[in-house]
Design brief:
It contains two helices and three strands. By secondary structure, it is α+β, with helices and mostly antiparallel strands. The chain has a domain of 68 residues: Ybab, Chain: A (2-Layer Sandwich). It has a three-stranded antiparallel β-sheet with strand order 1-2-3. The two termini are 31 Å apart.
Length: 106
Amino acid sequence: MRDLMGMMKQAKELQERMQQMQAELETIAVEGSSGGGLVSVTVTAKGECKAVHIDPSLVKPEETEILEDLLVAAFADARGKAERVMQEKMQALTGGLALPPGLNLF
């Protein structure tokens, strides 16, 4: 019975730390860019877009398709960075606890 109580306490502590980490991930910003920095986006570690910057040299009607492609690439870059931040935070939170593959806690 004592082991069960200890496990319940650990589960509750992990849940509390997860909630704290969720709040922290909303405040961490990462920037993704493309086109040699001509297009950049800022997203939270949870993937929420906060800002987009487009170099004025790209704002030409005949280059709309290029601009769209650069935006997609910048978002992909930022999302990849955000996912790495989440993974690092999760590893720190679980302290190496082996979680089942594919377990998405976010």
